[in-house]
Design goal:
By secondary structure, this protein is an alpha/beta fold. The chain has 2 domains: about 110 residues, NAD(P)-binding Rossmann-like Domain (Rossmann fold, 3-Layer(aba) Sandwich), CATH 3.40.50.720; about 170 residues, Rossmann fold (3-Layer(aba) Sandwich). About 30% of the residues lie in helices and about 15% in strands. A 6-stranded parallel beta sheet has the order 7-6-8-9-10-11, covered by helices on one side. Helix 5 crosses helix 7.
Length: about 300
């Protein structure tokens, strides 16, 4: 009886300590620590994990990985990948859905509290060594209403945390068909957590912003192109809504001359909310090990992407 061939997996060395002792014996791991090493090893990969903040090196690795059967990524959004091509090649893709949902939700709540209490003014007063006599912001989250567009892991995490602050939460999934646009004027907070697809592109435009009440705060933890950024800038300049919390901007990094930097009611968190933490990396490694078993048994993988839908 012949010896069964091992399955080559090209994996990031930064996760080696979390993965190596847990990998099944049918996997032959190859560890990369640089883009050059990733590209050198990519042709070997039947299983690939090519995450990089800059996307062109990842796309090059995908092009080189002709034997790829399963692509794993920590990124929740995969709309930047050549999904149709991967589908045609028969590649299974798993994403980071849910891995950073707690971190993103904490950023969302932090931003909302920052606006409600005008915490910027408190920090600046401390910088000036000035003792404020009254609170610069007196809004309370308790009793307010929040619309959360997107019912995935991030939207669910934000909703769960806001309910703990006694916020009335209305969560709407992209495919639910609910008429949220006619109700926009009833919400204090509009939080975007939808996937990046052709259907969600531009879903918050001038008309939607105009329907919001003056006290409304728009928070984007989805994709930059979900919002018409020019329409938003105009609304912020004219104080037609109170503020915007923007974890995503177009482009990124945001050029220093962009108007968003100078608007007092624009809060830019520089796409930091989903940066991997120790906890999320541990969860990613554990999910990958579980998915190895599913892959071996030809079962559906956890966080498997529907390549035709794009999420």
């Amino acid at each position: 009886m012949g010896v069964e061939a091992l399955t080559p997996a090209v994996l990031p060395v930064r996760l080696r300590a979390l993965l190596e002792d847990q990998l099944p014996d049918w996997i032959a791991p190859h560890w990369w620590s640089s883009v050059d090493e990733m590209h050198e090893l990519a042709p070997l990969a039947e299983i690939g994990w090519f995450d990089q903040h800059e996307k062109p090196p990842v796309l090059r690795a995908l092009d080189l990985a002709k034997n790829l059967r399963w692509l794993n990524s920590n990124y929740a959004g995969v709309d930047w990948m050549p999904l149709r091509e991967l589908d045609a090649r028969g590649v299974t893709v798993t994403c980071g859905s849910g891995l950073t949902s707690t971190a993103v939700a904490e950023f969302a709540v932090m931003g909302m509290l920052t606006v409600a209490k005008n915490y910027r003014a408190v920090v600046r007063a401390q910088d000036r060594h000035e003792w404020l006599q009254r609170a610069p912001g007196t809004r309370e989250l308790a009793g307010s209403r929040a619309l959360i567009l997107g019912a995935g892991a991030i939207g669910q995490a934000i909703a769960r945390m806001l309910r703990g602050f006694e916020v009335e939460v209305v969560a709407v999934s992209r495919s639910s068909g609910q008429d949220w646009r006619s109700q926009l004027g009833t919400f204090d907070w509009i939080v975007l957590a939808v996937p990046g697809t052709a259907e969600t592109r531009g879903m918050i435009g001038a008309a939607e912003i105009a329907a919001m009440k003056p006290e409304a705060v728009l928070a984007n933890f989805a994709r930059a192109d979900v919002i018409d950024q020019d329409a938003l800038i105009a609304a912020l300049e004219e104080r037609r809504i109170e503020a915007a919390l923007l974890d995503l901007t177009d482009p990124e990094p945001l050029p220093s001359e962009n108007k968003l930097w100078t608007l007092e009611n624009a809060h830019i968190t520089m796409h930091l909310s989903g940066i991997p933490t120790k906890a999320s990396l541990k969860s990613a490694a554990e999910r990958f090990i579980r998915n190895c078993g599913h892959f071996r048994r030809m079962e559906t993988l956890q966080a498997e992407v529907d390549l035709r839908k794009g999420y």
